[in-house]
């Protein structure tokens, strides 16, 4: 009786009922926009368009079921290929591989995973 029903509910205290439990009010922070997520999404989409342009179009579903370029174009675009990372010392591929996608289906699934971020 007289106890607030949630952390921010002080209606029972304002109505004159006092309880031994004090309510805690936390500052309300306006949600910020996920600019980094927008940037990564746009950069990934532009990279995929560039890969498809390098490939001369989308490969057939038999060659790439993700609706994207060939494996050779993915490696040429900076995809992760361990023999190049270890053998040639191309450690930059660990970073660029984050933006290289196998196709539209792969990119769409990754963007869906970014929605909560």
What report would you give on this structure?
The protein is mostly helical. It is built from six helices and no strands. The radius of gyration is 25 Å and the shape is elongated. The two termini are 40 Å apart. The relative contact order is 0.13.
Summing up helix and strand content along with how strands pair, one would put the structural category as mainly alpha
Give the amount of beta strand, in percent.
under 5%
Note the total helix count.
Answer: 6
Radius of gyration: 25 Å
Number of strands: 0
Task: Label the overall shape.
Answer: elongated
Key terms for this structure?
117 residues; mainly alpha; 6 helices; elongated
Please outline what is shown here.
The protein has six helices and no strands. It has 117 residues and is mostly helical. The protein is elongated.
Topology:
Layout lengths: L10 H4 L20 H21 L15 H6 L5 H6 L5 H4 L7 H11 L3
Helix pairs in contact: 2-6
